[in-house]
Design brief:
Helix content: 40-55%
Shape: globular
Radius of gyration: 18 Å
Number of strands: 8
Strand content: 15-25%
Structural class: alpha/beta
Number of helices: 7
Oligomer: single chain
């Protein structure tokens, strides 16, 4: 998104910018008949205040999520992921402007904040649950990295992968 002071940007511009940054607008413009797009979210967060998760920037503000859902409901054919995948596996064309909505990692906000909005607009979505995260026995790997870095208060972090240092 272009960083412009909020008072100068309308909600519709924010929604449009978000869809453009997600690639949906380009995909819809250039779509070939029978193709679609899968939009993946991690979570939804309250508009103000911390979300209570480490990867806050991956969680869409609830107001923006509602605007996105309204836009999708009015302008796209949102399909259950199962129907989307089934059509592709069988070689069937998807409806024009076909979209599937998914959520990764099974954050609590998927149910508490996103589900009421999805229900409001009658939009189906698939949530991929990581059972270790849900029952609290396992922290996501990226949370463990963030916690380790925060705990050590390092100014610089490097990682070695396959003999290369990044």
């Amino acid at each position: 998104l272009n960083l412009i002071p909020a008072r100068m940007v309308s909600r519709q511009q924010i929604v449009a910018s978000t869809l453009i940054s997600m690639g949906l607008a380009k995909r819809a413009r250039n779509s070939r008949t029978g193709q679609g797009c899968v939009l993946t979210f991690h979570g939804v967060r309250d508009d103000h205040g911390p979300s209570g998760v480490l990867d806050d920037e991956l969680h869409t503000p609830v107001r923006l999520f509602r605007d996105l859902c309204r836009h999708l409901a009015e302008n796209y054919k949102v399909l259950p992921l199962q129907d989307f995948v089934s059509a592709l596996k069988r070689g069937r064309a998807l409806p024009d402007r076909a979209v599937a909505i998914t959520f990764d990692d099974g954050y609590e906000s998927n149910y508490r904040l996103a589900f009421p909005i999805l229900r409001e607009f009658s939009l189906p979505a698939a949530i991929f649950l990581c059972t270790g995260y849900v029952d609290g026995t396992v922290r996501p790997w990226f949370h463990r990295v963030e916690l380790a870095v925060a705990r050590e208060r390092v100014r610089e972090l490097g990682i070695r992968i396959g003999g290369n240092f990044f």
